[in-house]
Write a structure and sequence with these properties.
By secondary structure, the chain is an all-alpha fold. It has helices at 9-41, 45-81, 85-112, 114-121, 125-138, 142-157, 162-184, 194-219, 235-266, 271-307, 311-336, 340-346, 351-383, 389-412, 417-423, 426-441, 450-464.
Length: 472
């Protein structure tokens, strides 16, 4: 059967079987976040801005541990392709340990130094005063999130996507109910405001972990539950893991620092802009619902193919994902575009905040499409063993183009808020032609399995033959 340039039935079957459950899980998580924000929005724009700044700290935490998770996904998917269960167990144990260290570190800062943390993001004391009670509680959630995210990454990478979906359903329902009870004091519970929202989130995180383990016990999972095999790593494996992961970890850490710098600048703009940005982040995460499904499917499918030695097939499918993902993002943004006004009004924005939100979503229709294209290509590189190129191009553009541009516009020239916001995405415009060229070159295919390494010489010969690969 002749293959379509966009994908044949087998490709779309694999894509749907992985991407749809993950997209549904992401939709649940982000719908819960949206409902949280709507509930908090009824408390006023100050509470909304305070929780929004706390969410930026949570995003920094996510960035800090995501490097270890991405490294783990690379090993999980490639070892899954070569059926190396022992290698998967070792990679899971090492990734989990590193992610928990990050979780406890960030959680400790949130619990014991919330004013310092919030003071980094804004100079507005009245917002900090409201956010302190939220931060002190939400810090206990970070280690739980590290644990649940590590388990979910493992299960997704080994094509068992239903368990994380079930756990997410239970967690988000718990979170929504907890917020409804504790924010407003319903059914006789204490009325706690933003602190109640934090407690609801923790309740959901606990349920997520518990359900994940219960499901793994019921299905007899041989990787998550065999604790002994997850530790006692050989020195050679530790070296291989950190050699491959070091660029990703550096990427995520320095990217987090760069984003922190951007958030500091944005937090020193008009208060109306801070509130509008908090709502924009929620809507942006809704768009990323579908992007997350694509990028996880790409990492699993292409990583598995590279690990199994099917390098030409992996190269072909990676190019398909690079087209499908931004196309889907653009269509979603176009659906949101005419509904911007009522969506923002539902979140409680009005006046100047509402006008800024309208403009921000208009900018994102184009900027978001470029950003998701860059993201999925970089994640595909990582799953295939290439961890350096994406780091170099992403950090170079962030620190030498985006951060200086935002600083000049926001601090030096005091440009209008929407102009400062637009410059946050300028690096994506620069990166896109470079990463597309590297994707086409195939130089990013760097297997960690023996099967993949054995197939590499023939794959390189195919690349030299006018870029034509023989794909069965």
């Amino acid at each position: 059967m002749k293959l379509s340039w966009l994908g044949d039935r087998a490709f779309f079957r694999r894509l749907i079987s992985i991407a749809i459950p993950i997209a549904l899980q992401n939709l649940l998580v982000n719908s819960s976040t949206m409902i949280d924000t709507m509930m908090i929005g009824t408390l006023g724009e100050t509470s909304l801005a305070a929780v929004g700044l706390s969410s930026q700290y949570a995003s920094l935490y996510f960035t800090a541990f995501f490097g270890f998770a991405s490294g783990g996904i690379m090993f999980f998917s490639q070892y899954w392709g070569s059926k190396n269960i022992k290698g998967i167990q070792q990679a899971y144990g090492l990734a989990l340990t590193c992610m928990l260290i990050v979780g406890f570190t960030f959680g400790g800062m949130a619990v014991f130094a919330p004013r310092f943390v919030l003071g980094v993001y804004t100079d507005k004391q009245y917002i900090i005063d409201v956010g302190v009670s939220y931060m002190r509680v939400i810090g206990f959630m970070f280690p739980l999130q590290s644990l649940s995210f590590a388990i979910s990454c493992l299960l997704r990478s080994t094509e068992r996507v239903r368990i994380p979906l079930v756990a997410s359903v239970a967690a988000q329902l718990t979170n929504i109910l907890g917020n409804w009870l504790l924010i407003f004091g319903n059914w006789g519970f204490p009325k706690m405001g933003v602190a109640g929202a934090a407690l609801g989130s923790i309740a959901g995180a606990v349920v997520n972990v518990v359900v994940l383990y219960i499901c793994c016990v019921r299905t007899g999972d041989s990787i998550v539950l065999r604790f002994r095999e997850q530790f006692g790593w050989p020195l050679s494996f530790i070296k291989l893991y950190f050699v491959k992961c070091a660029p990703i970890i550096a990427n995520e850490m320095f990217y987090g620092v760069g984003q922190l710098g951007i958030n500091i600048i944005m937090g020193r703009q008009a208060a109306e802009g801070i509130a509008a940005l908090a709502i924009f982040r929620v809507i942006e995460r809704i768009v990323f619902v579908f992007f997350g499904g694509f990028t996880n499917a790409s990492a699993v499918i292409v990583g598995k193919q590279v690990g199994a030695g099917e390098l030409a097939t992996g190269h072909r499918d990676a190019k398909r994902f690079a087209l499908l993902c931004p196309a889907a993002t653009f269509m979603i943004c176009m659906l949101i575009f005419p509904l911007r006004a009522p969506i923002l009004a539902v979140f409680g924005l009005s006046g100047a905040s509402h006008s800024l939100g309208m403009s921000m979503l208009a900018v994102y229709t184009v900027a978001g499409t470029l950003r998701t294209c860059n993201y999925i290509i970089n994640d595909t590189f990582r799953a295939s063993g290439e961890t350096v190129f994406g780091t170099v191009i992403e950090l170079s553009c962030l620190f030498f183009i985006t951060l200086p541009s935002v600083w000049l516009a926001g601090i030096v020239f005091r440009a209008p808020y929407i102009a400062v916001f637009s410059l946050v995405f300028i690096d994506d415009l620069v990166r896109i032609p470079v990463v597309l060229w590297y994707l086409r070159s195939g130089r990013w295919v760097k297997p960690v399995t023996e099967e993949g390494k054995l197939a590499l010489p023939l794959f390189k010969e195919g690349l030299k033959a006018k870029g034509q690969l023989n794909v069965k």
